[in-house]
Each structure stands twice: as C-alpha cells, then as structure tokens.
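Entry for the shared binder. Reason: the reviewer on the internal report wants the predicted structure included alongside the sequence.
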Amino acid sequence: MKRLNAKTGAPFKRGDVRENGFFFLGYQTKKDKNGMFYESWVRPNVWQTQISDGKNTLEKHVNRTLSHIKSRAKKSGIPFNLSTEYAVSIAVDTCPALGVKLAWAERNGRQANSPSLDKIIPELGYVEGNVMWLSNKANMMKNDATKDQLKKFANWILKEKIGNTSKSKSTDT
C-alpha cells in the first residue's frame, strides 16, 4: 500500500515536495510491517544534482546507487569500500544472468531491467572484487535462494512447462 500525498489525494510521485523541503524519489519494493511501501526522499541539494542538466547518466545512476548502498551497509555493519570510478568500470550493458539490456538512463523507478549492484559473496560485503551489476529482476531472484534452490526451481519450471512462454517483454526470459 502506498501512502497518499495529502495535497493531491494520490500516491506520491517523483518530485513531490514535503513540508521539510525534501523531494520524493519513489516507493521501494519492500514493505514495512504494516504493508506500506518504504519511501525514498532526498534533500533539495541532492535533488538538484539529479535534475540539474536534465540527463540521467550511468555515472549519476551509480552515484545514487552507491549512496543508498553505503547508507544501508553502515546501518547493517556490512563492509563497504566502493568508489564511483570502480562501480562505473565494472558496469555492463546487459544483465549477465538474464541477458536483458540494462536501463541505466531511465528514471521511471525501479524496473525489472534496472541495474542493481549485487554482492557475489554476501558476507564479504560491498567491496571491490565482490560486486557485479545485474538486472533488478535477477538480483531479486537470487536474493534469498541458494544455488540448489534455484536449480530445483528452474528444473521444476522446465519439467512442468509452467509460465507463459509466448511473452515477448524484454525484461522476461
């Protein structure tokens, strides 16, 4: 469930401003214990750097991603030593897991083909040599599952012929 903007009566949309001057970025995919989607808000100076030239570039995407990850890592006590330069240097155009084109320059919220930075060995944290870019869909798929669970799932799907194989959306495989 999404919280509604009291001024419009509709869910918040990117760019809405709240009383303290913070700008709304979007709803996150996770929900809290009450079933409400978490929200992302940024300070006015951060918002201005994101919209200043009217472009959304790979480097801007990487900076936003690293900012969020660094904050989460600090709260969770997860190692973090990534620089923008390193994260840009390992960026790819296509998700290595699903083969879909990554949407680096789109600003329509988190989509299946949005680039997502993944920890290869989770307990090592967000450190150089232990991260890779995947599509958000691939990262979510492997988020909680073990390799054995993913193999069993894939075999089950193939065996039972479950799913709509006629889909042609670029984010589905």
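Summary line for the report: Residues 1-54 form one domain.
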